[in-house]
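Researcher: For the record, we're logging two predictions in this thread. I'll number them. Prediction 1 follows.
Model: Prediction 1, sequence and structure:
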Amino acid sequence: MHTSRHTMPVGRFVAVTLALAMAALSNAGCGTTVTGRPNAAPSNATPAGPATEVTALESPPDGSGFSTEPLDQPNPAPGITWAARDKVCDWLTPDLATAIGATGPAQPGTLGCVVPVTGHAGDTAQIAWTFPFQALHEPTHFARPATVHGLQARQFALHGQGPGECTTQVNTRSAVSLHLVVWNPTDPAAGDHEARCATALRTAEVLTARYVPLAGGTPYPGTPQQPDPARLAKATACDVVTKGAANLANLDNQPGTPGTEDNGDTTCYHTSPHAEAHATLTTRGADRPTREIIGLPADLRPSTDPTDLACTMTINLSPDHHLRLTYHITGQPPAGADQSRLLGLACAFVELLAATTLNAIHRAN
């Protein structure tokens, strides 16, 4: 998934992401492992190390894989899809700004809160609570795992960024991850990316300690956690599963195709060259929830048909409203691909679609 500091992810990146993920799960040679991509590091970077064999769908040493941890935690702060865009910096309170070394006022940006910070002259931090922690499939200048208060994290710079930049992401096990970029807007290639990584890591430690429950924090007051039943009563499936949520789950950035079943349940269909998703907003929920997603009872069921690369998640949004999502991988799998791994990929993407959907539901709250 493209995670540029400047813009939201766009369609030409997300289609490639799933295609690359499918190709990575080819069993050519060993069947159950994929090779971690070696990273072309800038001259002043510490090399990320040789390619390493890692189990598919688990995080490889460079932090680029899907997390296998459940999304069972509350949202620490409002995500980037929050409707109150003018309040996107409200959670960065004056004492927090001082603690992270802010040297000037914070300003709402295109993707989060932008604040000048100490370090190389002109350094700026962009701080956002973005989509859930997920795979990286784009080339990087460097990438490596990190830990923030015991939470899974990673630091990297994509090739679309300057080699002097550092991005840090923290898995909060909620619908949003903490996403920090420290860079120099005037000259992205200038300066030491290691120093900026240190700044980003310190900032992440301060923010997670304040707002992430697993790090001892308390979510920012007013952060939406569960859908508004009053809004759900008026919603259709396409109102809930928006094009933005679908796009973050590797589907086309286009409105879904709406429909209505004979019993009155509304449906929404999203597609891409590699996958499709069917959503149904219904009064029939998960009878025996097997997990939680952002505090909501849910059930995850892979297809039992070995030829059907599909996975279904049902989420109890409220006592009277339930969302059923089915994610199908429709692209041609690579020759010799491990079907069980591809089915696991479908389940990973349906959980991602569920999390981004729950984020999008809060936009009107």
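Researcher: Logged. Prediction 2.
Model: Prediction 2, sequence and structure:
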Amino acid sequence: MNHCGGLFVHLKYYGITFRDDRVIDLFRELPDHRGCSAAELDAAEADLGVCFPARYRAMMELDATRLCGAGIVAPLHRLNDFRQEADGVLIEDGHLFRLERADVVFAWDGIFAFYFFNFNADGTDDPAVKMFNYYDSADDWKPVVSHDTLTAYFTDGLRRYLKLD
């Protein structure tokens, strides 16, 4: 997977826990990053009619290829498709919840949930990430906050990718 994989697995067995900022630093230290350009992000924003939060832009500019390959986020060219698929699921399954215009569906969890953020909701550069689980009525078919910030979402995904959990 990556040249550091053995080191991360080795550290895992010693019970070392890394702070969120250190997990992102470890990801930055990997070689051969392949991120999106600012122009690609700008075009995706224009296509969706939204502005991406700074944390999302920074992570996608750093290494969108690895983040997409690990299933942490969707590729930029699929964001509109993900939005349409999420809207379709909500309508077809008869859920009352509807996504707002500024909601960006940026990840899908297997076949049961999608993740989204709304940059306009609080104006922060690191908004909360919400999850809508369309196979589980435990939350009365309403989205729940899965992560308090995008940073926490990315960190959780990177912990799995780097085998730190």
